[in-house]
Amino acid sequence: MTPFSYHRPEAIDEALALAGPDSRFIAGGTNLLDLMKENLLHPRRLIDINRLPLREITPTPEGGLLIGALVGNAELAWDPRIEARYPLVAKAILAGASPQLRNMASTGGNLLQRTRCYYFYDAQTPCNKREPGSGCPARDGLNRMHAILGASDACVAVHPSDLCVALAALGAQVHTQGPQGKRRIDFADFHRLPDDEPWRDNNLDERELVTAVELPPQGYAGHCAYLKLRDRASYAFALVSVAAALDLDGERIRGARIALGGVAHKPWRLVEAEQLLCGRRAEPAAFAEAAERLLQSAQPLAGNAFKIELARRAIVRALGEAAGGTPR
Amino acid sequence: MNTLAAPVGQPLARVDGPLKVTGQARYAAEFGAPGLLHGVVVCSRIARGQVLRIDAREAEALDGVVLVLTHENRPPVASYDKPYQDDDAADGSPFRPLFNDRVLYSGQPLALVVAETRELARHAASLVRIEYRQEPHQTDLLAVREQAHEAPEPPPAPRGDFAGAFAAAPVRVECEYQTPVEHHNPMETHASTVFYQADGGLLVHDKTQGVQNCQRYLEQVFGLQGRIRVLAPFVGGAFGSGLRPQYQLPLAVMAALKLQRSVRVELSRQQMFTFGYRPRSLQRLRLGADRDGRLQALAHQALGQTSRFEDFTEHEVDWSGMLYACDNVQLGYRLAALDVYTPLDMRAPGAAIGVFALECAMDELAYAASVDPLELRLRNYSEVNGNQGKRYSSKELRACYVQGAERFGWAQRPQAPRSLREGNQLIGMGMATGVWEALQMPASARACIDADGRLQVSSATADIGTGTYTAMTQIAAAALGLPMEAVEFRLGDSNLPQAPLEGGSATVSSVGSAVHQACLALRQKLLDAAQQSPASPFTGASLDDVAFANGSMRLKRPPYTALALERIVGVSGALEAEVRVEPGEQRKNWATATHSAVFVEVRVDEELGTVKVSRVVSAVAAGRVVNPQTAGNQIVGGVVWGIGQALHEETLIDHRLGRYMNHNLAEYHLPVQADIPSIEAIFVEEHDSVVNALGSKGVGEIGIVGVAAAVANAVYHATGKRVRELPITLDKLL
Q1: pLDDT digit string (tens) for B247-268?
Q2: Which among A42, A142, A148, A310 is the top mutation candidate for probing chain B, defined by the most B β-carbons within 10 Å of its own β-carbon?
Q3: Is there a single domain that holds both residue B550 and residue B464?
Q4: Are B714 and B600 in contact (CB under 8 A)?
């Protein structure tokens, strides 16, 4: 681990003034410290943001909720407003990590988790995400966990977050603040596909700080499901996960949201697939069509072809569960 | 009288439990001293080749970095293989860390950075640049299966005429199974703290299953006879990883000798994947039976991987020649060398994978012959170990089958696959037999009763979490009729009486026998001492005439005098007895083994392929159980690991890089609590007067054996799909 200086500002402006190419913001540290200990990241300056006033969950004028970036994952999952109005968020969080990690991890930090690609995590191997231009051994190597959608020649890694899959499905917005001021980023535009710049996970500027995540008014509380398929029952990253939410009018679908985790460099959502469901009866045949559409552009690697069929089945199952009423 | 009465047989809590839960039990990396230096290992990134240059200038330039140790500046070490061959060495030339510039496997230690703090050493280690000349490597067992050679320790000789009997058998099963590399991954990572003594000797705290094994290794490798003492009073799990001295030990010693200072080397979790492991195996089973499922022919061929420098052998196919009655048997065991480290015994070495293949094949035979899988085992039951042609000293496997089946409710199981379902879940029930050797090795123990009547018993064995402290205390307390609180057992110190490696499920059998005998010898001394006083009521009495109970020695005939042991030693002073116990001659005429019957229920999501083990019953016959609680823990822990073997565990290797890639506990999947159902361990009554004086066979390995097969068989019963390659991940069931 490279020696670093440590700063604990009290105000956002102060934190932003400290930020720069060799610095990193740290909140829970559940991912950053691992990355530093493994010699994958070498920040020379850590800016501890835990004293910044970003811990509140407040109602928005539109009827949604604004979640401060420092709200802990566990705190968020068990917040009564989240449980009642956004159970999809609660379920996604509780499907990830372990209680200890969820106690430490922050909302903002969850968005910035790095991939769990084996090669990214081993500094002794090439990785375009870690060392631009060094190559991608995963493309023809161990890629059972890797992307089936939106991958590039340079990178086939997937985003590991569960929370982000729910946030993508709900259409959250990310609030940020940087030297250029404040902005809001639609969740769909926050994370990036790898293309030829796989080292960029998202569209944040290096001096920009995530300050909050805004949930829209519609939480699909009555009809949502988060289904995570993985290699053991807990504490494993998703092979495929599905956040599904339905707005039902009797047996008819008024609106639908579907996002996939574990399949791409970002949570995967396709509005056309959701629109296919509008006006249809909530039944397996319709769900299968949506799944088909969502996965139309899927490209398997040597080790992960199963993910396409698994995702198809998981989408149908999750939509079926959502239609039956949010599982308790 | 019975010297194996209570507290032997009682389910007592661990005597070392309070020390562990209050943090007072200290492990190898927890011993410190002012000025202690910290070493961090730099490992190879290539699998085969030569080190051209190690550039440590940047690391050495840091203030507080004391030394970068490499093959070029290490202290002198032994030149021949023999000094490196420890008690668990495989055949060949043991690996020698920092010996020369050859790279033999990816992850090989190539440098040790020593600094004043661990953090600094870790940072400095990241600055060491190594230039290699890379050579083509091979790490894929499948690619070299045609180049395999006979294992140096051949399997039991063939018997009968396999080929003829197999060809003639009306029911035949022929299948191939694959099991992956697995790593031990005890919670405590390997570490050695070496204290450099004023006289140049070394006091070493090591994570090991054999302090004397490490002591001898260091004495031989560094020429330090009589100047090494190794301690390991507590070990945070090992499962075999501590059977051989691991490389952090000689590295720490090298640094200590070079600097004449105390040094600690602690491996990271990632580095726990840079030495021994359970080898990958390819196994072919051919079973021929009559129409009732009675075995006519059995062949079991296994191919295991090994390193280029040692031939690691384990008993992988032997079980197939001893578990069932069969006249025509052919066993084969070959090894293929790869650019990898040598495999290492890991819980139930050989049996965990060999019995998996055998017991899956037996299940396949049960379906081929349309016989209930349990009934098939009963039809092929054997009272004789066919490999040796000897009867078992005891074998209550039949009772395991009966009691396990009843507890599990096996009788309700329909034979046809896919016949049980609940919603999306297919339910399946499977069973398998487990078997392990009942070994005994020479061991010594010393028993000493002090003038206060407190008994101290000791032997240089280990407690790797198995309950050795507790079991030995029970054996000693029972032999001298003392309460548990009056007995202290000491272990994990190379100065103590000789003990074998703590492994192979042989510690109670070997060290327990020595403890028992030492305490019996001490009884004689107590009687002798009591007879010294004039007009002693014990005059003329022999050991048969006295009983030891409630802290006293009592005459079993009038006048029934009882004398507190502390009164005897109050007069005589402390008394001591030390014995060495060899395996009894009587063992030679018998086969000795532990057995189990494992019953498993699984629930498989038909569409999504997820498998949940919902129930396990394991019935075990292991002779006398010294402590049902700690022994029960062993069985339950073994079952958990068997579930992991069946469903989760696999060390993934990138063959192009020749490197293990999922080297952390997030990506190397062990089962977590949510994967584990209620597990019921049953010990059936088994009396054995042959295995050893205790009649106790040991339970460290048997818990895992057969579990993976029972899970795989249950998955077949649920889904109708045979998965012959572990682990059974959901993609294999889609």
Answers
A1: 999 999 999 999 999 999 999 9
A2: A142
A3: yes
A4: yes
Number of structural domains in chain B: 3
What are the structural domains of chain A? 5-47 (3.30.43.10), 224-323 (3.30.390.50)
Residue B734 confidence class, pLDDT cut points 50, 70, 90: very high
Domain final residue, candidates B252, B273, B294:
B273
Q: Hey, are the CB atoms on B730 and A310 less than 8 Å from each other?
A: yes
Full residue range of the structural domain in which residue B69 is found: 31-136+187-238+242-273
Say if residue B1's pLDDT is above 50: no
Hey, how many other C-beta atoms are within 10 angstroms of the C-beta on A6? Answer: 9
Q: Please name the residue that has the structure tokens 């009521």.
A: B537
Q: What is the DSSP string of B603-668?
A: EEETTT--EEEEEEEEEEE-BS-S-HHHHHHHHHHHHHHHHHHHHT----EETTTTEE---STTTS
B550 with B599, same domain? no
CB contact under 8 A, B657 and A233: no
Residues in B touching A156 (Cβ below 8 Å): none
B534 pLDDT band (50/70/90 cuts)?
A: confident
Residues pairing with B128 in the sheet: none
CA distance A313 to B74: 59
Instruction: Collect all residues of chain B within an 8 Å Cβ-Cβ radius of residue A141.
Output: 654, 656-657, 661
Contact B280, B143 (CB under 8 A): no
Indicate if ipTM > 0.95: yes
Of B647, B661, B672, the CB nearest to A122: B661
Catalytic choice (B131, B135, B701, B725):
B701
**B701 catalytic residue (yes or no):** yes
pLDDT at B2 over 80: no
Would you tell me the crossing angle of helices B248-259 and B211-222 to the nearest 10 degrees? 50
pLDDT digits (tens, 9 = 90+) for B273-315: 999 999 999 999 999 999 999 999 999 999 999 999 999 999 9
Over range B571-579, report the average pLDDT.
97
Given A2, A37, A232, which is nearest B675 (Cβ)?
A232
CATH number of the domain bearing residue B71: 3.90.1170.50
Q: Rounded to the nearest 10 degrees, how much is the dihedral formed by the CA atoms of A281, A283, A285, A287?
A: 90
CB-based contact A144 B731, cutoff 8 Å: yes
Residues of chain A with pLDDT below 70 are none
CB distance A122–B663 less than 8 Å? yes
Q: Cβ contact (<8 Å) for B731 and A38?
A: no
Nearest to B674 among A124, A125, A233 (CB): A233
- Tell me the nearest-neighbour CA distance from B668 into chain A, angstroms: 10
- Same domain? For B415 and B447 the reply is no
Helix ranges, chain A (H): 12-18, 32-37, 73-77, 80-85, 87-94, 99-104, 107-111, 163-170, 187-190, 271-277, 284-294, 306-323
Is residue B478 included in any domain, yes or no? yes
Interchain contact, A234 vs B672, CB within 8 Å = yes
